[in-house]
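Lab notebook, design round three. We kept the backbone fixed and only want residue identities now. Task for the bench partner: fill in a sequence for the structure below.
Input structure tokens:
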């Protein structure tokens, strides 16, 4: 359930800011050509929603971000668990990880464009690279933070590596993994929009560039604010899924005992 009282308190400052913006624009203090005004931005948003262009662009951005997030999350969680469980493997790969992790994801745009061309695959590839590292680091840190005695129990019971991971490691590291995946989802949206602004001719980022080049400040701000709304909604949805996922996981494990 949405906490409407908390949401209302959170909307006070944005509403005051938009009201001040509208007043300053009406008074001629702010330039119309570059800043437009909230009433015109709202009208542009409703128009873009009505003709479907904003929803279609949102679908394109979310498609690339979601695919990249899912691929990177699955691979990074598996790799993070293995690196956290086996310190020799972590030491062996530490140089590669520390050398690749600082590379900005946008630096891969030319390479991804060369390999995949324009379109979904190019954008997904850049998102995968950006999301992989934070999820890997958070997951491996969570696994390394597991109580050593818990792992000794698995060895004493002579559990296989797969059963040890499922029965002991994942439940203990699950909160960290969930946080890493939620963090990765936010990064996926940011990187997807960045790729669209820089290169890929589709999605919300490309729509903002088109609006800016057409001197449609109202439409550009409409899409910019819409990205914020989409990001907020995604975070709320992921928080709910995270709580239900954790609750389901623990209840399923208790029922299986």
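Proposed sequence:
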């Amino acid at each position: 359930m949405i906490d409407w009282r908390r949401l209302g308190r959170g909307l006070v400052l944005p509403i005051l800011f938009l009201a001040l913006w509208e007043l300053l624009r009406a008074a001629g203090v702010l330039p119309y050509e570059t800043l437009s005004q909230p009433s015109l931005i709202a009208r542009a948003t409703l128009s873009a929603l009505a003709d479907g262009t904003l929803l279609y662009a949102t679908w394109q951005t979310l498609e690339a971000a979601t695919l990249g997030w899912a691929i990177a999350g699955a691979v990074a969680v598996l790799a993070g668990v293995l690196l956290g469980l086996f310190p020799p493997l972590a030491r062996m790969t530490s140089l590669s990880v520390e050398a690749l992790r600082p590379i900005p994801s946008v630096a891969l745009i030319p390479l991804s464009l060369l390999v995949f061309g324009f379109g979904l695959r190019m954008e997904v590839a850049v998102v995968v690279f950006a999301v992989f590292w934070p999820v890997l680091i958070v997951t491996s840190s969570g696994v390394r933070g597991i109580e050593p005695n818990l792992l000794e129990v698995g060895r004493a019971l002579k559990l296989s590596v797969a059963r040890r991971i499922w029965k002991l490691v994942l439940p203990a590291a699950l909160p960290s993994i969930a946080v890493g995946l939620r963090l990765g989802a936010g990064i996926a949206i940011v990187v997807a929009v960045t790729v669209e602004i820089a290169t890929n001719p589709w999605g919300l980022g490309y729509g903002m560039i088109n609006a800016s080049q057409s001197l449609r400040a109202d439409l550009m701000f409409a899409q910019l604010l819409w990205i914020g709304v989409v990001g907020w909604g995604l975070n709320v949805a992921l928080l709910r899924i995270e709580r239900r996922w954790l609750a389901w996981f623990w209840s399923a494990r208790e029922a299986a005992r």
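Keep this in mind before ordering anything: The chain has one domain: 52-256.
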